[in-house]
């Protein structure tokens, strides 16, 4: 019996309805949960947006409407930090996608050993639950001028390579390793839903491997790809651990700016920066959603073929 | 319907595809584990930030044992993580059951999954402004735990919901027809069948909370958790880094086997082909 049916049954017998509804209906629980969730998530995000229209004078927040904070954001060097953050996030996501898609394809369709597949999925999941600071700071001991790589290079007579650490390279590198699994997983799961017989049919009809990839696998795996891209863009747009520890002060990103604005009690600026991050993400997700919508037609065609 | 390994499709067997996909991923995976391994090695090194582990020493572990600064953050991290785990198991189970009884679960589920689309730092900053400045509350372990529940619950809820989609609703109807009370239905029918998902929900809550940094950073008030402590040491106090490595090594040695066993068991059915 569904909740709605239970409610209707309850309404028919007025005496029992209230108690029954309380235990059985779950309506009150879900209403309470959704309301609490919205209050703890959407309301703070909205109020944060409101905060970005206040200003800071001295260490006090001035609660009168003003565009000054946004003006400062776009005028000062933070605008450059914004474009740099977007650049790093998109680059890192693109690199991860190029590495993750073939891997997910192999894992889902190519890997023949069940044990190996289970092991790889396990290895992909574990780092998600580990704290990132110490895993990141240790790269200094590997990439630094006295680190492992440069010691080994010195052994074969190559002079220390300074660009390995405290550089754009180090930041991109560290973030690619950190967020690789969040791309592999959704793509893997969507590939698991791609019927092997469809691929076989395409092959029987004379499609080349590239055509199969482009016309069969990619469109069907698109929801997973979009999810993977979103789950990589969301954390990379506000990353602050990797840029601070591996970028030195050369590669500050928006995450670092939010962090320092809050520590300096510049709440309106922190709010404006966070709202900016959120706005960029909403635009990017909107674009991805349009791509997904457009490909629906292709997916529907496949669904019809399957029936 | 899965055709299985029996059908050899050309693009699957073509060596270059397989090798490219396999090697690119395994290389990244190896690089992702390199810092964890190197962290453990260098925690025994006299010069932990150098390129060579030698000479080896136990000094950092002895200093860590004598040091008291990390103990309070460790205790509060464990307490918060346990509470978040319990909260995720409870809320995940009851909201999950409720959601699955709705005709259109999309809206509630969609709202519940929203935190996955907001960066941790952003939600941390927003919640800080809301709780501290708008409501004027004193932040502390409770607000850290709240931020963690907001982060871990979507995963916990998904686990329960996925488990429930495979759950035969007729079992509940049958139990009811036979006169079971709502409590009996839950404990005798639902709990045994949902137990893996509920334990999984608690695990997700515990470990996501135990390693969480961006939300905790703003919601901490004056309290400190282990990830905040490690972050503060790494970003401000270079001299403490060796002791941080020793601490991180011990945490990794305790948590990785737990996670590995759990996920190996959890993934085995999904990863297996008939």
Written description of the protein model:
The complex is a heterodimer of chains A (about 300) and B (about 270). Chain A has about 300 residues and is mainly α. Chain A folds into 2 domains: about 1-50, no CATH class; about 70-305, MetI-like fold. Chain A contains 15 helices and 2 strands. Chain A has helices spanning about 5-10, 15-25, 25-50, 70-75, 80-110, 115-125, 135, 140-145, 150-155, 170-190, 195-205, 210-235, 240-245, 255-265, 265-305; strands at about 55, 60. Chain A has a two-stranded antiparallel ribbon with strand order 1-2. In chain A, a hairpin with a 2-residue loop joins strand 1 (about 55) and strand 2 (about 60). Chain A is globular, with a radius of gyration of 25 Å. The model of chain A is unreliable at about 5-15 (pLDDT under 50). With about 270 residues, chain B is mainly alpha-helical. Chain B has 2 domains: about 10-65; about 70-270, MetI-like fold. Chain B contains 12 helices and no strands. Chain B has helices spanning about 10-15, 15-40, 60-65, 70-100, 105-115, 120-135, 140-165, 170-175, 180-210, 215-220, 225-235, 240-270. In chain B, helix 2 (about 15-40) runs antiparallel to helix 12 (about 240-270), helix 4 (about 70-100) packs across helix 9 and helix 4 packs across helix 11. Chain B is globular. The relative contact order of chain B is 0.13. Mean pLDDT of chain B is about 85; it is low at about 1-5. Chains A and B meet through helix 3, helix 5, helix 6, helix 7 and helix 8 of A and helix 1, helix 2, helix 4, helix 5 and helix 6 of B.
């Amino acid at each position: 019996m569904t909740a709605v049916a239970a409610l209707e049954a309850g309404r028919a017998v007025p005496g029992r309805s209230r108690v029954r509804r309380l235990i059985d209906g779950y309506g009150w629980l879900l209403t309470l949960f959704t309301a609490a969730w919205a209050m703890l998530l959407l309301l703070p995000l909205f109020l944060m947006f409101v905060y970005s229209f206040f200003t800071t004078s001295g260490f006090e927040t001035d609660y009168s409407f003003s565009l000054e904070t946004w003006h400062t954001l776009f005028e000062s060097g933070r605008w450059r930090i914004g474009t740099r953050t977007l650049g790093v996030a998109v680059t890192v996501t693109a690199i991860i996608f190029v590495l993750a898609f073939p891997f997910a394809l192999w894992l889902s369709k190519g890997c023949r050993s069940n044990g190996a597949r289970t092991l790889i999925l396990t290895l992909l999941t574990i780092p998600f639950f580990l704290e990132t600071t110490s895993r990141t700071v240790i790269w200094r001991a590997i990439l630094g001028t006295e680190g492992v790589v440069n010691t080994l290079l010195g052994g074969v007579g190559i002079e220390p390579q300074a660009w390995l650490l405290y550089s754009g390279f180090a930041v991109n590198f560290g973030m690619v390793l950190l967020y690789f699994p969040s791309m592999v997983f959704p793509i893997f799961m969507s590939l698991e839903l791609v019927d092997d017989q469809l691929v076989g049919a395409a092959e029987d009809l004379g499609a080349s491997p590239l055509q199969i990839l482009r016309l069969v696998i990619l469109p069907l795996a698109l929801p997973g790809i979009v999810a993977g891209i979103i789950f990589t863009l969301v954390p990379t747009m506000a990353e602050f651990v990797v840029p601070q520890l591996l970028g030195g002060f050369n590669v500050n990103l928006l995450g670092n700016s939010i962090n320092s604005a809050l520590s300096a009690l510049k709440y309106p600026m922190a709010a404006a920066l966070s709202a900016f991050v959120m706005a960029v993400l909403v635009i990017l997700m909107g674009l991805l959603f349009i791509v997904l919508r457009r490909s629906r037609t292709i997916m529907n065609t496949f669904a019809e073929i399957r029936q | 319907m899965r055709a299985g390994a029996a059908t050899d499709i050309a693009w699957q067997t073509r060596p270059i595809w397989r090798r490219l996909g396999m090697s690119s991923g395994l290389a990244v995976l190896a690089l992702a584990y390199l810092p964890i391994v190197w962290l453990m090695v260098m925690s025994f090194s006299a010069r932990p930030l150098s390129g060579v582990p030698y000479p080896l020493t136990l000094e950092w572990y002895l200093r860590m044992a004598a040091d008291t600064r990390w103990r309070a953050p460790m205790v509060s991290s464990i307490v918060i993580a346990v509470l978040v785990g319990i909260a995720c198991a409870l809320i995940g189970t009851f909201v999950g059951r409720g959601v699955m009884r709705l005709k259109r679960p999309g809206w509630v589920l969609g709202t519940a999954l929203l935190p996955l689309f907001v960066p941790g730092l952003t939600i941390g900053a927003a919640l800080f402004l809301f709780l501290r400045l708008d409501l004027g509350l004193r932040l502390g372990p409770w607000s850290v735990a709240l931020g963690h529940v907001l982060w871990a619950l979507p995963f916990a809820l998904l686990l329960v919901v996925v488990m429930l989609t495979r759950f035969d609703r007729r079992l509940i109807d049958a139990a009811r027809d036979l006169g079971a009370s709502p409590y009996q239905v839950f404990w005798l029918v639902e709990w045994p069948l949902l137990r893996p998902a509920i334990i999984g929900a608690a695990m997700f809550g515990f470990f996501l909370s135990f390693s969480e940094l961006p939300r905790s950073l703003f919601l901490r008030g004056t309290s400190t958790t282990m990830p905040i402590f490690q972050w503060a040491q790494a970003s401000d106090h270079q001299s403490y880094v060796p002791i941080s490595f020793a601490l991180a090594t011990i945490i990794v040695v305790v948590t990785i086997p737990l996670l590995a066993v759990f996920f190996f068991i959890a993934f085995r059915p999904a990863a297996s082909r008939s």
